[in-house]
Amino acid sequence: MTTSIANSFEEGVPPVTPPKNAYPVLSQIWVLVGVFILAQIPAAIPMIGLKAAADSYGLPFLDTIGQTLAYALGMMLTIWYAFRQRGSRALSFASVPIPAYLVSAVGLIAMGVLAEPIVSAIPMPDAVEELIRKTFTKNVILSAVIAAPILEEILFRGIILDGFLKNYRPTKAIIWSALIFGFIHFIPAQALNAAFIGIAFGWLYYRTRSLTLCMFLHFVNNGLSSLTFLSDEGLNMSENTTREWMGSDVYYVALLVGCAVVCVVCYRLLDRILPNAQAV
């Protein structure tokens, strides 16, 4: 190597340096997670102020605005840091055939039903359940359904997964990005569910390089989850509500089998509809 560099200089040709890894690599992720956690401190300032104003003047919409601003500010600070580290703000919004949106949404819903028995098996302390019930109200709908699909997809698929796909094999990149996506949700049941979703979204991004598709599906997932949660004040995340709604184990097993078939069919359809994985 030393000889080749010397020869290059002797011939008037600059030496070729090894390519730098794209941002991020796994060793850089924990710093990014730390930035995300620290970003919640300044992000909480407008939430606290608007919460006080909402209570003082009886204007609950100020609380909604405050919580949305807090979430968005924390995410945007993290994204800003990631862009700085990456040295580029480029994001991929490749076009996707319209049928892929419908097929992906159907598959996502079926996958959610299949994941529910696993997610609901994770014990949830009563204190955590009560905290979620008090926190997840109509005031957070705006951030959960609108802001989260946009900002989380930019960070986790547009930056983290996109960088991983440049540094690692697709399977490793998708699984690690999904695990990180799950970890950042903190609450075990939510984290596991987010990891499952992260694998699905990761595969779709790998095949399409389309943040638009991922944002749409994230909107569908969070929208349906919000409607379900808010429609039942007594909903317990550690309970299998679908099984209770079915009223019979036989019907529930049939539903699970049907959802498994739907997932397989959707996967095969998407494999035909979507373009081949793009080189990075």
Automatic annotation (TrEMBL):
Q: Which InterPro entries match?
A: CAAX_protease, Rce1/LyrA-like_dom
* Membrane-spanning segments: 29-49, 61-83, 98-119, 173-206, 213-230, 250-270
* Domain of life from the UniProt record: Bacteria
Per the UniProt entry, what are the Gene Ontology biological process annotations, in alphabetical order?
A: CAAX-box protein maturation
A GO molecular function assigned to this protein is:
endopeptidase activity
Occurrences of domain CAAX prenyl protease 2/Lysostaphin resistance protein A-like (ranges)? 140-223
Alphabetic keyword roster? Membrane, Transmembrane, Transmembrane helix
**Name this protein carries in UniProt:** CAAX prenyl protease 2/Lysostaphin resistance protein A-like domain-containing protein
